Amino acid sequence: MTTTELGPLSPGARVALVAPSGPPPSELLARSLELLVEWGLEPVVYPSATAEHPRARYLAGSDSQRAADLQDAWCDETIDAVFCARGGYGSVRMIDLLDHEALAAATPKPLCGSSDVTGIHEYWLERLGLATWFTPMTATADLLDDPDAVESLRRAVFEPASGRTFTAPDAETIVAGEAHGRIIGGNLSLLAMTLGAHGRPVADHSGCIALLEDVDEEPYRLDGLLTSLLRAGWFDGVAGIALGSWKGCGDLAEVRALAEELLAPLGIPLVWELGFGHGPRASSVPLGVQGTLSAGPTPELVIAG
After folding, report:
1. In this predicted structure, what is the pLDDT of residue 295?
2. What SS3 state is found at 87?
3. Which helix (H) or strand (E) segment is 92 a member of?
């Protein structure tokens, strides 16, 4: 059974800021702290948020340090939520270092992040049975310079998820229909990268609603990533698919044509650009909870009440 304890938080809550993947720029980290304080939260900065890897500048400290920070923040009963400061790359290098038993024994709390943090969302859902928030990263310009994205994250932090409706001005239906089920997915690259992780078979996604988005991947790369998931059986039994933003992925018409070519034959509701991911006005959406995807004249995703 998946728990849906996603908050909401109250002013005064202590929240952890960790960097399980790439290192956040110092000026953006400072701005993210200002935002959290402005919201009335008490941010606690963990060492990985300012750490440097001895070799790779694209990693926020060593794998063991990033894993320890994430685990310590999650298991600390005085911490009310965990925010991941930045994506980039690195979660797949540290998730096998996590202590599953310690994580499972801790009191559930909101965990927020997206992009490379998809690997962590997947672990939390498949190994711990916990719902999480797929949100823009707190120490990135994509969030901090976008008032609509900031407001969506604020709502995720302080308002209940149940009953909320997600849509976007550019949302369009590719395959019409309606799907009910648990919401899964995230960043396409990471979903392909974690196939077979932990020595486990592909999870059973029967009846699930899949969210997919990516950034800075050429169409031929997206083709390969989608094909890998299809061949591995990742989409077997999926009830519906909602696509998000494809920032920096080339001609969007080509990306859409690719999605139609590979995903429409599944014969399930399929929606284009539902407003989550790396694009402007990105919504913060919950994963691991029940919802309804309506692929009609006005496509929308409604979180179960």
Report:
1. 98
2. coil
3. helix 91-94
278 is catalytic: yes
Q: Is the pLDDT of residue 195 over 50?
A: yes
Measured over all CA atoms, what is the biggest interatomic distance in the chain, rounded to whole angstroms?
Answer: 52
The closest of 210, 212, 205 to 187, measured between CA atoms, is 212
The active-site residue, picked from 278, 283, 284, 300, is 278
Rounded Cα–Cα distance for residues 7 and 24 (Å): 25
Going by C-alpha positions, the residue among 146, 173, 111, 98 that lies closest to residue 277 is 146
Task: Answer left, alpha or beta for residue 160, where phi above 0 means left and psi between -120 and 50 means alpha.
Answer: beta
**Contact assessment for residue 188 and residue 241, using Cβ atoms and an 8 Å cutoff:** no
Q: How far is residue 123 CA from its own chain's centroid?
A: 12
99 C-beta neighbours (distance < 10 Å), count: 12
122, 126, 213, 217: the catalytic one is 213
Q: Contact, 27 vs 134, CB < 8 A?
A: no
- What's the DSSP call for residue 255? H
Residue 213 is a catalytic residue? yes
Beta bridge partners of 133: 112, 286
Q: Which residues pair with 247 in a beta bridge?
A: 215
CA distances from 262 to 72, 184, 189, 225 (A): 41, 19, 16, 11
Q: Phi/psi at 152 (nearest 5 deg)?
A: -65, -40
Cut 0.90: pTM above it: yes
